[in-house]
Amino acid sequence: MAKKDVKKVIKPVVAKSNKESNSNTINVASNAAVSTISLFEELSKSVITSYKQYLKDLENDQKLRLIDTFLAFLVVVGIIQFSFCLLGGSFPFNAFLGGFSATIGQFVLTVGLRLQNSDSNKDLFNGLLPERAFGEYILASLILHFVIIHFIN
Question: Could you say which residues form the signal peptide (predicted)?
Fold first, then answer.
């Protein structure tokens, strides 16, 4: 839908700019700005709709909300670590690598836990209890952090 709207806006402007000379250059820029604003509005509406649907889907499941909050926290921590490395330097590079790897590894393990606890994936993990999935998550997290601590040395 958005691509059709942009084409409709741009085609008449291009046709006018071929017939007339200098005055339509401003019209091309203003119409392009209008189409950009409409694309931005469409994007914001779709993000808001998706977020409302997400909240509606997870209205009763507090476990998945907690897992998603932890995933968002891990993303923020990873961004902070990477930006600190860019701005402040990475003198003990193995410390940066260990911390960043721990963040990414914990994110991957948490996504696996979320997939195993989601109601939409009950068919894939038919015989797996949620308690067992959480136990495997804890064990894998301990192994991950043990390896990272020994990597930092």
Answer: none
